[in-house]
Design a protein that fits this description.
Number of strands: 15
Oligomer: single chain
Number of domains: 2
Protein name: Ger(X)C family spore germination protein
Mean pLDDT: 85
Main location: membrane
Radius of gyration: 28 Å
Membrane topology: Lipid-anchor
Subcellular location: Membrane
Distance between the termini: 103 Å
Largest sheet: 9 strands, mixed
InterPro entries: GerAC_N, Spore_GerAC-like, Spore_GerAC-like_C, Spore_GerAC_C_sf
Number of helices: 11
Length: about 400
């Protein structure tokens, strides 16, 4: 009797499970991944009191690494354009004709034009970050170029558009460290923090360097950086102007310099792993000046003129010091705090920083930089030994 009762209970449980299965609704809101338009980059311009938004859309079936794909085969890029009174309004105008549902979870880069940056990026950035699919860890750039020109540029060897410098700047930075990539969460933190300037790398199109056979191949490159003080665009400096800023980048992978000796190039060095300190000095009249101390390691890449290692270190120290001084002067002309000097003052002496900035938002001058100390240590001379002295 007990066995029969147990069987009936099992049958009842199975019947109930079957009934629950029949009552389940399907995944009506699901989408096949091949039927989505994946937005990978957003570009925003501002003209005539309205926003013009561009998006780059890629088909992942064309760019995924599979056995059936042909390396070097051109990959099509789709560009959408929308206009509106607000950022969201301009994006909504684009979605009206997209044909497919637009998915924003794979956005990897945002590019602002100079017109938009002059108007201000805070409201625009807040509007984009409010949408749950867009993540904070995306690359942020400014540009002087037309956004159509930026978004249609291909990669070397016709690889995936996701292999351009706009999406993978770390690959170039690891070989030639110049201007650090900037991510969305860093922009949010810096632009809302007193005493800390915000820097955005600038994208440009380089047309003279690479060719495919005899046909010129325009490719993207980092041409410089835009600087913001107190949320306002203060200026732009070229990569050449910013050479001295490399030596205060803690994540510096490798920077190449040539060291001159009496108007002749003596050697080519790779400098890496800098350690630096910025020290604000307050005099009796509350005048603020700054000392910069840099310690950096080096490797000898090319020895053109037979020179002892100690001499090369001294020449490299002089060259780095000169680059820092020159970049500081260029920054003054553009009202840019390239070396984050005032941030050091804000961290150590916040009361003095606040009292000074009530008078004027930009306090740096020609004599604000009091002393620069540089120490270069050559750790490697390659496969050949160098003369110590």
């Amino acid at each position: 009797m007990a066995l029969r009762s147990k069987s009936l209970r099992r049958m009842s449980a199975a019947a109930l499970s079957l009934l629950c299965t029949l009552l389940l609704t399907g995944c009506w809101n699901s989408r096949d991944i091949q039927n989505l338009a994946y937005v990978t980059a957003i570009g925003i311009d501002y003209k005539d009191n309205h926003y013009i938004t561009y998006v780059q859309v890629l088909n992942f079936s064309n760019i995924a690494r599979t056995e059936t794909n042909t390396i070097g085969k051109p990959v099509p890029i789709w560009i959408g354009k929308g206009e509106g009174n607000t950022v969201v309004d301009s994006l909504d105008a684009m979605m009206a004709t997209s044909q497919l549902r637009m998915f924003w979870g794979h956005v990897k880069a945002i590019v602002f034009t100079e017109n938009l940056m002059r108007m201000g990026i805070v409201d625009t950035f807040n509007a984009l970050n409010r949408y749950r699919e867009i993540r904070y860890r995306l690359l942020v750039y400014g540009t002087k170029e037309k956004l159509e020109n930026v978004f249609t540029k291909k990669s070397l060897l016709n690889l995936s558009p996701l292999d351009t410098i706009m999406y993978t700047p770390e690959q170039t930075y690891s070989q030639r460290s110049f201007i650090q990539p900037v991510y969305g969460h860093q922009v949010v933190a810096r632009i809302n923090e007193p005493g800390q300037p915000t820097m955005l790398p600038s994208l440009t199109v380089t047309r003279e360097i690479w060719t495919e056979d005899t046909k010129g191949m325009p490719l993207l490159s980092i041409s410089g950086a835009y600087f913001f003080n107190d949320r306002v665009l203060s200026g732009w400096l070229s990569s050449e102007d910013l050479k001295g800023s490399r030596w205060i980048q803690k994540d510096l992978k490798q920077a190449i310099i040539q060291v001159p000796n009496k108007d002749e190039v003596a050697a080519t060095l790779a400098l890496l792993k800098p350690k630096y300190r910025i020290r604000p000095i307050i005099d009796s009249g509350n005048k603020v000046r700054y000392d910069i101390d840099v310690r950096i390691q080096g490797k000898l890449f090319e020895l053109i003129k037979d020179t002892p290692t100690r001499k090369l270190e001294k020449l490299a120290q002089d060259e780095v010091m000169q680059e820092i001084q020159e970049t500081y002067r260029k920054g003054l002309a553009a009202h840019c705090d390239v070396f984050n000097l005032e941030e050091a003052l804000y961290r150590k002496y916040p009361k003095i920083w606040h009292s000074q900035h009530r008078k004027a938002p930009y306090q740096l001058s020609e004599d604000s930089l009091r002393k620069i100390t540089v120490k270069v240590s050559l750790r490697n001379t390659g496969k050949y030994k160098g003369r110590v002295g």
